[in-house]
Amino acid sequence: MKKQTTLMARIWADLKVINVNDHIEKKNGLSYLSWAWAWSTLMDHYPETYYQFQEIDRPNGTVQVEVVVTIHEGDEVASRTMWLPVMDYKNKSIVNPTTRDISDTRMRCLVKCLAMFGLGHYIYAGEDIPGSEKSAKVDMITDKQLKELVDLCKATGADQAVWANHYGVTQLSELPSEVYEQMYNALRGHLESAERSAAQESVVSENGL
Where do the domains of the chain lie, and which CATH numbers do they carry? Predict the structure, then answer.
């Protein structure tokens, strides 16, 4: 039976384990994650995603940027909002910012919002590596869970090595138990979709259409 989890929970479990360290830039003692890499990574996992920006002008001449990121998966929708003032290199609010100032802040705000979904969240928590990597002991999936995932990979034609790499491990037996349900549901979804398509094609074929 398919394990029931919310889309938001699956996204968090999926993204929080990704190590983003190789894509961090340092500036004035602060860490910045490449927005291009962050967005590309999100698209690899959840391509049905879009964002919308809004600028709010304050009476003192400063500007606040807000972004809403919405992720779709089937009939489910997950959305988060984040905000950030337009700031200079000293992280002080800029009065009457230029369009370049606003543009740069937009992308920083987007990355910050993606962190709320789990991608690079540990950067904002002041940690050097994802929690799953720094844990002294990580609970691994059971032999039964491993067999279920392997069987689903075979049934769907999924590449086990690709899935293992997706979760930052060399083989499925090394998967942490916390991501089992996320992978199980994803593979089950692919299998059920394939079965529905096959059934529809069979009906068409029988009707001679």
Answer: 7-133 (3.30.390), 137-206 (no CATH)
